[in-house]
Amino acid sequence: MSALNIEKGSSKHSAYNLRPTFSDVQETHTLAVLVDNEPGVLARVIGLFSGRGYNIESLTVAEVDHTGHLSRITIVTTGTPQVIEQIKAQLGRIVPVHEVHDLTAEGRAVERELALFKVAGQGDKRVEALRLADIFRANVVDSTLESFVFQITGTSEKVDAFADLMRPLGLIEMARTGVAALSRGAE
């Protein structure tokens, strides 16, 4: 009996198992996209995501080279490894896109977010809000007798944690910039 016949009951040698296995694990990636700073470019990039049902968790855009008319779009998105690769490939095919960098895959990156929190409260809640703001290194950027506006910078997780603690103390409103990120090192 041949080795193939011995293993007949096993699916180890089946031709059906030769196809690659793809991960269903969702991963969060931060993409940095350098584009021409011209009307309609952001709409085209965002259209790629909405047209294919990809989610954007955070989006920031700003001009980074005034003389070269270039803007940097930082996108935080979630998907399987195959979806992330597909997003990068499709972004790279859009004409006004110059570079696409997956900061998550390329190594360590510095990611920060800025947020403003309006917290209303009196008495002990007001004192507790100030105490927590000090612990989180949040700055008071506006103050009235009824409320504070705190400014905090840090990772998205730090901003989320601060929001969770401010809710029971009278969080009224918040504004977040989204993630800004750069790769670490000389390049």
TrEMBL record:
Entry's Gene Ontology cellular component terms: cytosol
GO molecular function, one term: acetolactate synthase regulator activity
Domain ACT span(s) in chain numbering: 30-105
Catalyzed reaction equations: 2 pyruvate + H(+) = (2S)-2-acetolactate + CO2
UniProt entry keywords in alphabetical sequence: Amino-acid biosynthesis, Branched-chain amino acid biosynthesis, Transferase
Coiled coil: none
InterPro entries on file: Acetalactate_synth_ssu (IPR004789), Acetolactate_synth/TF_NikR_C (IPR027271), Acetolactate_synth_ssu_C (IPR019455), ACT-like_dom_sf (IPR045865), ACT_dom (IPR002912), AHAS_ACT (IPR039557), AHAS_small-like_ACT (IPR054480)
GO biological process, one term: isoleucine biosynthetic process
Pathway this chain belongs to: Amino-acid biosynthesis; L-isoleucine biosynthesis; L-isoleucine from 2-oxobutanoate: step 1/4; Amino-acid biosynthesis; L-valine biosynthesis; L-valine from pyruvate: step 1/4
Pfam families: ACT_AHAS_ss, ALS_ss_C
EC number: 2.2.1.6
Function field: Catalyzes the conversion of 2 pyruvate molecules into acetolactate in the first common step of the biosynthetic pathway of the branched-amino acids such as leucine, isoleucine, and valine.
NCBIfam families reported for this sequence: acolac_sm (TIGR00119), PRK11895.1 (NF008864)
Subunit structure: Dimer of large and small chains.
Similarity remark: Belongs to the acetolactate synthase small subunit family.
Protein name: Acetolactate synthase small subunit
